[in-house]
Design goal:
Elements lengths: L6 E4 L3 H12 L4 E5 L7 H4 L13 H20 L4 E10 L17 E3 L7 E10 L1 H13 L3 E4 L6 H11 L2
Parallel strand pairs: 1-2, 2-6
Antiparallel strand pairs: 3-5, 4-5
The protein binds flavin-adenine dinucleotide.
The site of flavin-adenine dinucleotide has 21 residues, from helix 1, strand 2 and helix 2.
Catalytic activity: a D-alpha-amino acid + O2 + H2O = a 2-oxocarboxylate + H2O2 + NH4(+)
Family: Belongs to the DAMOX/DASOX family.
Cofactor: FAD
């Protein structure tokens, strides 16, 4: 029997757990359903470095990047387990035509000349996350008021129907 919940979050990786913690902070009763233990998700093995990649310039992405940067840097300053600010260097090969589109999201980006074959060196602070302690911290924050259920049965048809019914409460 599933405990009463205002919201059912499907997925116990960093996205699901972060959503669950945020919803709980806003007063919702949350149940997280995950086919895997949070410690066994893709999130656990991520390098988890802040850096907009595999995406083109987009105002929405810039806004998400800025919010993520601010939040992760604040968490690093607050001593959240796994959250760190890393001095980062990026060497460019393509002609340098000015700061990258994501520079406004970043606190301290500086461009310097670089020796060939490179065209420029970007220096900036990149928030990064050690995922094992970070996921454990998220789970600990949830522990007080939320339920985390781990079962491969959610992959099945019957499981999916049960989850959908819970979401409609
Ligand atoms: C090697 C590597 C390096 C990476 N480096 C970076 C990086 O530097 N920076 C960066 O931003 N990103 C990086 N990523 C990407 C990052 O790991 C992912 O974007 C992120 O972990 C996705 O999180 P998630 O919570 O959405 O998914 P996941 O961590 O995959 O979690 C998915 C969850 O959903 C559950 N689930 C799925 N289907 C069902 C179902 N039907 N029923 C119930 N539960 C279900 C799973 O059990 C799991 O709990 C990297 C990834 C890899 C593999």
């Amino acid at each position: 029997m599933m405990a009463a919940a205002d919201v059912v979050v499907v997925g116990g990786g960093v996205v699901g757990m972060t959503a669950a913690v945020t919803l709980q902070q806003r007063g919702a009763r949350v149940t997280v359903l995950s086919a895997d233990d949070p410690a066994d998700t893709v999130s656990t093995v991520a390098a988890a470095v802040w850096y907009p990649t595999h995406t083109d310039e987009d105002p929405r992405v810039l806004d998400w990047a800025r919010q993520t940067y601010t939040k992760l840097s604040r968490q690093a300053g607050d001593g959240v387990p796994g959250a760190v600010d890393r001095p980062t260097r990026m060497l460019l090969r393509e002609p340098y035509v000015g700061p990258p589109w994501w520079a406004p999201a970043c606190a301290d980006l500086l461009a310097e000349p670089a020796a060939p074959p490179y065209t420029a060196l970007l220096r900036f602070t990149a928030p990064a996350v050690e995922m094992t302690p970070y996921l454990a911290w998220l789970r600990q924050r949830l522990a007080a008021g939320a339920t985390v259920r781990i079962s491969s049965a959610y992959w099945g048809k019957r499981g999916r129907r049960q989850v959908a019914a819970s979401c409609l409460r």
